[in-house]
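User: Continuing from earlier, I have the next pair ready.

Assistant: Great, send them over.

User: Here they are, in order.

Assistant: Folding the first of the pair now:
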Amino acid sequence: MIARFPHSAAGVLLTLHVVQTLDRGYAEAGAVAAVMTIGIAVGAPWRGRRVDLAGLRVALIPSVIAEAVIWSVAPHLTYEWLLLAALVGGVFTLPVFSVVRQSLGVLVSGDSRRTAFTLDAVATEVIFMGGPALGAVLATQVSTVLGLTVVGLSTAVAGLFLMWFNPPTRSAQPGAVAAAPTAAQDDAAAVEVMVAAAPAHVWEASAELVPGARPARATRARARVAHSFAWLTLPVAVVLVVAAGAGMVLAGTDVGIIAVLEDDGRAFELGWVFLAWCSASVVGGLVYGAMHRPISPLVLLLLMSVLTIPMGFADSTFVLALLSIAPGLLCAPVLSAASERIAHLVAEERRGEAMGWYGSALTSGVALGAPAAGLMIDSVGPWGGFVAVGAATAALSLLGLGAQQARRRRSL
């Protein structure tokens, strides 16, 4: 929670810095946020892979240095250079979300994982209740320059704390709970071993024996790619789609709430709606974490998507807050169920990379959901944002559930 707090305030601070300090528009502020999001999406898998290969302490060194340097310099740059700094800062963002999930995957096992991942999602909701508000106060009452610098230095200190604490990311490390691998993990590990151990002459011979085969170098390149993504099975891909869908709904709902209240001149009442929305997520997370049976992330995403649509038809702040409770109850369960599923499906040797891609999928959904909702809001009105992201993600969930059913029938 401590390490995530600066991240939760960064978005508001960056937006207000562009609008207030640099005297630019909200569209240009959105461009900075989009560039940073792209950087995070690109960097997350690479940072996770470094944790798998080099260990946590070595992998975090570039992030600690970059967070301290970039966000101490970025507030003093012109808008054009700030775009570049935001991109680089995004790539080297401290991978605290994926590190926590990866560590929880080996610290607990069985049904306890559901509770642990749910508490992680609940903690995130609590952070996002206070972080953005603190960032706004710091920006308006003190300085956006100081605020962004504090965010960078605080994140670097959090990284140093993680390096000192060094939570286990493998079951062989102290404190971890060793769990027997699943059959799917055994198969994936076997494929990786065979691909990695096969000598060069095997690939060369296979290329010579098959008529019209490509040269051995291309064959080996394909084998390396297959080895690198051996963990990416169809069930894992479905979870990544769920993460992207969840990000889309959350970002679209965020923009929709702001649009509805601003359209009615009640933007000052924004905090009440976000309080109801996030509090519901905390309650839903606690309930889901206490359950003894998992629920499919696709089912949870479908319910959250459908329940988001009615928020567009609220005619007062009270009604909007009330309607936000139902989809809010499913927010933390969706994220915790997806994290739990990734931890179950991917062998721990590749789990850091998988969690990185999970974070990238979630971030990509956020990057897509906000402009999609904004486009509908500009076209048809504030209610269009909720309908757009809710309907699109519900359709995505139904397609995923249909694909799962078809796969099960073929396997029978």
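And the other member of the pair:
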Amino acid sequence: MRAPRRHLSVIAALGSAALLLGACSTATAPAPAINSAPADSAAIPAGLEKFYTQELDWASCGGVLLCTELTVPMDYDDPSGKTMTLALNKRPGGKNAAGSLLVNPGGPGASGLETVREAVPNMFGQDLQRGFDVVGFDPRGVGSSTPVTCEQPAEQDAGRAEQFDPGSDAGIEEMRRDSAEYAALCAERTGDALGFVDTISAARDMDVIRSALGDKTLNYLGYSYGTSLGANYAQLFPQNVGRMVLDGALDPTLGNNEITMGQALGFENEIRAYMQDCLDSGDCPFSGELEDALDQLRELFAEVEAEPLVGSDGRSVPIIDFVNGFIVPLYDNSTWPMLTEALRNVMAGNVDDIQYFADLTAGRESDGSYTGNGTAAFSAINCLDYPMDADIPTMRAEAQELAQAAPTIGKYLAYGAVGCQDWKHPATGNPAPLTAEGAAPIVVIGTTGDPATPYAWSQALAEQLSSASLVTYEGHGHTAYGRSNDCIANAVESYFLDGTVPADGLTC
């Protein structure tokens, strides 16, 4: 298997945007001290006045879109020190728009700019698009904001083609050397910003964004990892929460190992659901009963693990890239037929469809360039947000548990701690409950068949947040709003537009 610095990523394709989700981060911090403010404006944290009172200079950046940049402190404990730049865009609402609606697609590492540019027109109802200026941002370290920079395209291609054997101590040592080289490259090319791309800092940035937009409270829609940003924002600034929807939630009490196990089980269950649907279709490249077909799939994975496939462009597709490509269509059951066709082609000797999906997870274009920096940001944010134990016996025990619990996918999620072992900056995250006492009503949405953020995580976050209502979508796929049904759409849009909080326990 390939080095864990580029290990299995969890990806969501919402609309036309590729939204990195992966092993997701949570962290907590005490609320900052604040200065008093007039009753018609939100309070400004002490020492941050010059950031909170910025005036945004919006300029046209294609069609109806407007773009701008915002400055935030690199280190909120040293606001007079270095700064970082955040990139924002927006789709202006109608003439009676009720302020801004900030959107984050997840990750960590996904671009909010891309979401607003590409996905929002197809995912959001027209009334919601008219009712708010829909604003996207690339969080610190991501994309067009002060980015984490690690590899050039040729280096990233080479890294994706690598394959190691964690079954031996020598294989793990090779993985460690490779990961240490990658960590050193990230530190050299990113500089001091690499130590400040944690979730807490990004959540604090959101309050600067709110103020610069001229909104007293933050209206926010966060998907997947974006729910961690939203929940931490509510914990830090409960008095500034407006209307907030957290879709496909993370449980902030879970550590890295628990997150990994939850996702392994989630994807294993979704693979079973997909495979049964494939068999029932009568046009499936697998045969027999469900367990027979799953055995055939595992045999296919074993063959790729033993001998990587080669795409028509000559690039190698080793097992982790293959599995990354395999899981992309699992994020939405409407794309399951695409997975069936891709697997049928693999069995006929053509891996190009799977390679295309794997390229989507990495942000690789057909010309060999890479858009964004999702892989690098994914690593950097997670290494800061989660303490990880790279002790070999510990990792081997975890790998065994993953393989037993999720026999199809679990082994490919193991050994991720190696990727953070030699990271220049130690983890600062501290998984713990988030209550956001005093916040306005928050809506948490969970999907019963969500493979990337299991339904139980949404239940847990809704239970922790003091003002949360839980809405359940009974279905498959990752997240719900924009890809599920009218019941979810009406609940979300009525809440944002009219302030109608859906009943706790609503099931769609």
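Worth noting for the second one:
The longest helix spans residues 256-281. The mean pLDDT is 92.
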